[in-house]
Amino acid sequence: MRFGARLALAVITLAVTATACGTPRDSGSPSRTTADCAPYARYGKHPGTRVTVYAENRDREADLFEETWADFADCTGIDVRYEGDGEFEAQIQVRVDGGSAPDVAFFPQPGLLERFARAGKLKPVSPGVATLAKQGWSADWNSYATVDGTLYGTPLVANVKSFVWYSPTFFRDKGLSVPRTWSELMAVTEKVAASGVKPWCAGVESAEATGWPVTDWIEDVLLRQQGTDVYDQWVAHEIPFDDPRVIQAMNTVGSILKNDRYANGGFGPARSMASISFQEAGTPVLSGDCAMHRQASFYADMWPKGTEIGPDKDVHVFLLPGADPASRPVLGGGVFTAAFADRPEVRAFQEYLATADFANARMRKGPYVSANRGVDPANAATEVDRLSIRLLQDPRTQFRFDGSDLMPASVGAGTFWKGAVDWIGGASTRQVAGSIERSWPRS
Amino acid sequence: MSFDAVAQQPKLLYLLQGVAAFAAVVSLVLLALHRGPVRRRAAALILLAPALALLTIGLLLPGLRTLALSFTDNGGDAWVGLDNYVWMFTDHRALVALRNTVAWVVLVPLTSTAVGLLYAAAVARSRFRTFALSLVLTPMAISFVGAGVVWKFVYAYRPAEAGQVGLLNQLVVAIGGEPRQWLVDPPWNVLFLVVAMVWTQTGFAAVLLAGAIRAVPAELTEAARLDGASPGQVLRRITVPSIRPTLLVVLLAQAVATFKAFDIVKTMTGGQFDTGVLAHEMYDQAFRYGETGRGAALAVLLFLLVTPFVAHQVRARRRTG
């Protein structure tokens, strides 16, 4: 055979194989229609339509989302196209400016959502979604997606940041009990330090986001020392960033994190935390090289494989205590859905995501926390998820959203993170807080 | 993963349309040139027209828009005059990025060209020249992101009592030192990033210079050696003067590449610990912080800084070519 003929044959073979490979997936979908479509009847039928979703979750988290809404998609006929991108925060701007905005985006920061809402790019939610939002979430949670009185989205994911991870065996061996107040926490800290073990582990390295675990610490302590009102004023820049009360909170955090006797267990002096990724920072808890690691509920996924979580297992959590045992200040974060398009199928999809049904279905598939009042803690995949949901649903909880996610991005994701790193490296509190205050955008 | 020809059909169709449109434009140009007597100047214009149109759409208009944006606020709406430029020369972070960029542009081309030159001179006439050159060229085949990740591992920090995972700290520990956080302490951390960039660029310099060195007449160096010149003297007095044009081209090309350095900073430190450079700061401001005006102003500054280098390179090439 001449070369030309061989090439032609190869191309034909390739084309036939490619088509053949494509077929099983197409023929596979009809068998899926066994799903019970009754629960999805109220979203109507939208055959031949498509909704594009853009978010930062990839891999397993993305798969779990797609599995959860697969029945919804089949029953309504909506083709939900999901795209996960690790560069979401920067690329969403490019996508929107370039005229190829997704129909629905999952915003990890309310500040980012607000930017697009103010620019007139986002569509206000439909009356149906607004009703669901009012039913499902507290006024506080709904306020994060509200810009100038208009609701633009609903919370999708929630997480609790104010947890302290510890080893129940270590605590038992040292005769320690879980602290219920801030002074008990400091007593435990001192007791562990006296026994020759550094009580705290902390790592703040997180690529471009390096520093955020420290900002969380500061926010947590400010919330505990000054309460929700001062916290809200600080986040909204109604009081300066370097207000004396904020300085006080920073100094309290500094007395733990910048103290070589107290940190950084298993990794050397306190300033070593700048080089240690937040993911691996907690592992010395398992080996007894540190006693406590303050980190969010999602840290459950970051323990080495095989680590068991529970009150009498390898690791467990307690809520970072407040001034007295009765107070329940909780710092948390979340992801919000919002839409750039206003078509019936997009509204139907947003409505579905806003239901407790979706949250419950998602929880049954794997670790997931929602602040929706309608979720059943019994569906939670892990002990920590169950605890998080109970805290979020408890009316006595004083919940506040992660302040750096609410501040303008140039501060919240810029000078605050960077300043936190400089501060851990040895810069003075007053100097760092002052420079963050000066960096606040004027407009 | 399978390639589903049916699902990809729209894209294939676009591709086909694009190719057809391109062919049509080219045929039109050729047809216009072919028919009737066309003066040389007009012919040149017709031949250049597609390229000029693309340059206008892809380079000139976005450039002008960036210039306009650099005088507006964060949303790109309100006019703010020179505010963004004032910010650039007063803000600590922007100034650090400017300082680091200057350091990079001085250090990277000089170091990588110097190392490349020594390496090329050493292997240019050896039997294993091809092998030796491909060895030093390998880092260039790795993307900057890959290089950043590799060097991040080299600098990884672990406390003295734990096992080291970073090559550099392992060496430090082996000779009895304390492990250090190489990427955390300014201004030295900038040098450690520069090393990663030099690592990727040296091969480029070495290959080009080795070619130039081989073009130097062997009689010349032989005569010098017979007259008792040391290898160092041969390099300084004979080789370098003979390959000066190539050296200049290499230096300028490296300088332009260094101005654009972004990936290494992004993967290794994310611009933290005072390691930002202009290109990275521009990305952060424009895309991560939504400060479009500031990002655009940084882009304009970067453009102004690169221009003399590019202009000089074009002139140098015209002279040698």
UniProtKB/TrEMBL annotation, chain A:
Cleavable signal peptide: 1-20
Record key words, sorted: Signal, Transport
Gene3D superfamilies found in the cross-reference section: Periplasmic binding protein-like II
Source taxon at top rank: Bacteria
InterPro entries: Bact_solute-bd_prot1, SBP
Family: Belongs to the bacterial solute-binding protein 1 family.
The protein's name: ABC transporter substrate-binding protein
Organism of origin: Streptomyces roseoviridis
TrEMBL record, chain B:
UniProt feature coiled coil, ranges: none
Lineage top rank: taxon: Bacteria
Gene3D superfamilies given in the database record: MetI-like (1.10.3720.10)
Membrane association type: Multi-pass membrane protein
Transmembrane segments: 12-33, 45-64, 102-124, 131-151, 190-213, 246-265, 292-311
Main location (coarse class): membrane
Keyword Membrane annotated: yes
InterPro entries assigned to the protein according to its UniProt record, in alphabetical order: ABC_transporter_permease, MetI-like, MetI-like_sf
SUPFAM superfamilies reported for this sequence: MalF N-terminal region-like, MetI-like
Localisation: Cell membrane
Keywords from the UniProt entry: Cell membrane, Membrane, Transmembrane, Transmembrane helix, Transport
Record-annotated ABC transmembrane type-1 domain positions: 98-315
Family (UniProt): Belongs to the binding-protein-dependent transport system permease family.
Official protein name in the record: Carbohydrate ABC transporter permease
